[in-house]
Amino acid sequence: MAATPLEALLDLDSLLTAEDLELRTMVRQFGEQRLRPHIAEWFEKGEVPVRDLAQEIGKLGLLGMHLKGYGCSGSTATAYGLVCQELEAVDSGLRSLVSVQGSLAMFAIHHWGSEEQREQWLPGMAAGDLIGCFGLTEPDYGSNPGGMRTTARRDGSDWVLNGSKMWITNASIADVAIVWARSKEGVIGFAVPTSTPGFTAREMTHKMSLRASVTSEFTLDDVRLPEDARLPGAQGLKGPLACLSEARFGIVFGAVGAARDCLETTLAYVGTREVFDKPLSAYQLTQAKIADMAVELGKAQLLALHLGRLKDTDRIKPEQVSVGKLNNVREAIKIARQCRTLLGANGITLEYPVIRHANNLESVLTYEGTSEVHQLVIAEALTGVSAFR
Q: Where is the Acyl-CoA oxidase/dehydrogenase middle domain (predicted)?
């Protein structure tokens, strides 16, 4: 598949390998043929066939694709980023399905779990037969996970969990929940089968963003687990924060996909929409807006690719991921809003993807670290002084 005019502007494809381009083409075609025809309806109804999609995406080898073994292909970080980009070009909720499954739930088990846990869960999750969720955020503790109230206490050889988690993707349909809780030993993690007595989840409705994604809250009421449900490698907030860094990396690329789709849609629209007897694209104000957006999009793509290469060589740092997340989501939402103005009244309908992307990016802007949190991470790396407290 040939590069789009936006990709050709800076010859971005020259920075990708043949394998990268082949994978991008495959996922882009899957998005155009399987996902895009239905996405407006899924968004409008607030319903998405997650289990069916997970199995289809699993057959493509995209779930946990950057992990090694247990049914995972062990791809490069850059390749994984490109997949996130193509999925979010269709909808942020679809990228979220892949990143929550692979970079949060599967990564937690792969990185912090026991060999038995990896064998139990990862092959089914890679295939899309099992759905995972990641329970860190609580009703009163989003940006400050260290204040979590969910507790884990020992009772003989078992653990007993109590608490609640909120804004959890796929919790109400998940087979396994990665749950982080406070204990005498500090923050620890568990792989909790959602069929365990005392685990209840409900879908959160009335959303105006990420409507093509299942968002849930769940409660733990004396959930009793054996010792082998604990993730033995995770101790302290380092465990969940490492998982979040993995997922944030996917957002760095994903936001570029959403912005690109908005701008490509707008380029097509202004070329055919006539205003005062000539195409909207023929006006200097329109061209200035398009040029500025294309420049910011190209810079965001270059930043994403640079971070991908750093990650592929094990040199990436959390503050660098914060730079990517802060910049690329911030610029993507600006592009979506600007594109909306160029589409006029058509910009608010689901016949075009722009308002849907703009609404979704409002969530992407704040989840997995608000812009303010990432500003503080970056500034701490530069000044050596933490301003979180």
A: 133-223
